[in-house]
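Weekly structure sync - notes
Attendees: PM, LS, DV (DV joined late)
Agenda: review two folding runs queued last week.

Item 1: First target. Sequence and structure tokens pasted below for the record.
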Amino acid sequence: MITKKTFFFAIIFLFLLLIGVFTYQFLIVNKKHSSTSKVEISIQSTKLVEAFIHNETKADYLYINKLIQVTGIVKEINFLNDKTTLILEGSNSNNSGIICDIHKSQTKKLTNIKKHQKVTLKGICKGFLKDVILLDCYIDFKING
């Protein structure tokens, strides 16, 4: 038979366990970067795309879920469904590029960016379909040429 004391400790244990799970989920797993977050990797857009084309498994290991700073030439700028996407040129061999989902705080900076301009962005690499995908991208004007 379960005593009141045992039941009370079981409830406290479950409550603390839930707090731990939610803390882990929201503070570690869903951690977002900002414009001041430390970049883990800096690379040219063409080299990043080529890495995924030549050895996707190795590129996944090197780049997925890491904060990457990418420098490349703007191929296209899209404003669709309340999302802003900047596409950087990548591999000419198979017409792949880098799709950069721009963070909402950066949309005003896009007015200063034109097609064929060299830009530097940083974002979280999420993988490769036909293009490399970067999410939550921040624009860095200090390095752009």
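Item 2: Second target, run right after the first with the same settings.
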Amino acid sequence: MTALGLHSTYAANVLPPLLLAGLGTGPAIAPAISLPTYRVNEHDAGVASAAVNVMQQIGGSVGTALFNTMATTAVTTYLTDHPRHTPQVLAEAGVHDYASAYWWAAAVFALGGVATLIVYPSGQVKGTSLSTTA
């Protein structure tokens, strides 16, 4: 999404990254929920699960606000650097702010990936399965 431009199209420039994000997010959701609650005592499972859900909600809210702030700062800086606010410059500023926020998001996700590799063990956690049976 960082390569979007003024003449980008949905099918060629937006849909492929969205599909890629969906393919990566799907397999990450189950471990993101099950691993933090692994080995939690049965009587604490509800509280542990609630804590995980709350942290995900807070992270999503704070992340959205943070990336919006970064995008706003990027567009303000762009418009300050380009004092003639023609329609073309305003359109370029709109693309620039999103690209900046996407780059920051990519850096945060990369940092999170490195932290995950360091903190969580590799392989399947004993006694768990990602598949369900009837």
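Discussion on item 2: Residues 130-134 have pLDDT under 50 and may be disordered.
Action: LS to circulate a short write-up before next sync.
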